[in-house]
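Milestone 3.1: sequence recovery, worked example.
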């Protein structure tokens, strides 16, 4: 497994590694895919400052209000928890 890091500077700049793609972005939300799932960055005046997919790195500037990891779903569209609760 690759190392994944998140570095937030004063809630104004966030650097994320292990990025494989950006699903969507606007001034209030950035949705990105990681090798191990997905991540959602929420805030205001967000700007995708750097995207280097070869190195798996993204830098977002603006006012960061939250960072959310999204569950990874299997091929059937079920989360790990729902498969365990069978």
């Amino acid at each position: 497994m690759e190392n994944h890091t998140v570095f937030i500077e004063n809630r104004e700049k966030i650097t994320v590694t292990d990025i494989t793609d950006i699903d969507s972005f606007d001034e209030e939300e950035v949705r990105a895919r990681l090798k191990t799932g997905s991540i959602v960055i929420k805030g205001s005046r967000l700007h995708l400052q750097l995207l280097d997919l070869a190195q798996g790195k993204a830098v977002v500037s603006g006012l960061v209000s939250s960072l959310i990891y999204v569950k990874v779903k299997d091929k059937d569209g079920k989360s790990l928890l729902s498969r365990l609760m069978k």
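The chain has one domain: 6-84. The longest strand covers residues 37-52.
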